[in-house]
Amino acid sequence: MRKAAVTCGVIGVILLVVAALLAWWITPSFVARLPGNYNKTRTYDGTIHKLFEPAALAGPNPAAAIRTNLPATLTEQVKVLQTAGNSALLQDIRTIKAAGSQVARTDSHYSVDRKTLEATAPHPKSWVVTPAKGLTVSWPLGAKKQNYTGWVPLTNTTTLLKYVGEAKQGGITTYEYRATIPPTPIKNPQVLAGLPASLPTSLVPSLIRAGLVSPSQAASLATVFPHATTIPLGYTYQATNTYYVAPASGLVVNVSNNETETAAVKLPTGTLAPVTAVLSDSYHASPSSLASAVSDANSSGSAISALGVDLPIAFLALGFLLLVAAIILWMRKHSRGRPVDAGYEPRHPSPAGRVR
Predict the structure, then answer these.
(1) Which SS3 state, helix, strand or coil, does residue 276 take?
(2) Cα 305 to the chain's mean position, in Å?
(3) What is the pLDDT of residues 86-136, one digit of tens each?
(4) Three-state DSSP class for 173?
(5) Spatial distance between the Cα atoms of 163 and 149, rounded to a whole number of angstroms
(6) Domain locations in the chain?
(7) Alpha carbons within 13 A on the beta-carbon side of 194
């Protein structure tokens, strides 16, 4: 009996310790964080509402420089290249294609905290990363009903990711966050490398024929740049983007994004005077990509829930029952072995009918 009590007690204590370790150390430190082998590609279906191709201005038909309502596909690949403790080196490649041709591409590298998914985590000096701030590619595991700060890669600035409520996506409940970005100068060198830094004044008549610049605007340009052979250009980015996030895993399962890149004249005062959109598009997850994202979210969420909640509760309950059993067995053992009181003398009845 004593051996059984000790065994139950030891196993019960071990289960309680394991439950605590699973809930407060193992799951948060090794499960509820970005995996070192993470490599996911999402595909989004969209429409390019307006695309400006400057090279066509020099041709016989300047109006061909403007293309509208093109079916487009946006692909995003997020991959962990390296890890160092709780930091991860992320590669984020975004590509937009329309009519079989690549319209835009960016390749960004971030150092992020593997738990919070926020950028600017400590990292090895050998990592070459964008000095970003806030969330870059995803939400933290266990996303909350609160506002977050997000990184805008085209402008190298941050934006508010406002929580607006719950929404169903792909059959699961997601948290909906919205970012509203006003026209902001584009500073991403990869994006600017694909856009002309200036416009030859000789092309202004072509811009007028293409309907991109009105005669009055052309006259203003001639006044502002009277003897110039080129007109300096700048670009702005604005967007209204919505993200649908699976709260347990923090994965973005769908988006509803509307973005515009606009060409502007750099005035001598330093301000940008908008001229025309060079890329305006909207997109959302393709059906197959949405299904894949939902599957990943459910799988990740189930693993976190099982190891961080279900197993600890089961181990806690079983450990408590074993400790109770150990106490009961120990008390029964001592009760059975209790000695007889020293002053007690049993009575023996006299033989029936004995005459004294």
Answers:
(1) strand
(2) 19
(3) 899 999 999 999 988 999 999 999 999 988 999 987 899 999 999 999 999
(4) strand
(5) 11
(6) 1-31+301-335, 32-285
(7) 15
